[in-house]
Amino acid sequence: MIDYNQKKIKIGYKEYNVEYVNHPVVVDKKECYGAIDYNNHRIEIDNRYCDTDKEACFWHEVFHGLFNMHLPKQLTEEDNELLAKGFYLFIKDNPKLFK
Length: 99
Known about the structure:
Elements: E1 8-11, E2 14-21, E3 25-27, E4 30-32, E5 34-37, E6 42-46, H1 51-70, H2 77-93
Parallel strand pairs: 2-6
Antiparallel strand pairs: 1-2, 3-4, 5-6
């Protein structure tokens, strides 16, 4: 299956550090499961949540990175959430495909 403990991932030409932190991740004064920092190439995920929530958050932030790199206009947060969760569930529902 997928190793969610990777400390570095590549999205396009950028290599992101993936950090699991034990404190709230705050974006625009709102507590989130995670965040992506495009300028510092960093993805931060709150480690206090269950594995399923952290894995879904991982894909949410990866999708932000992909769309930031490859689309002229960012998707809404809601659209990104729907696509990332749908992809994550596809992975979970088809484990033999990702061995």
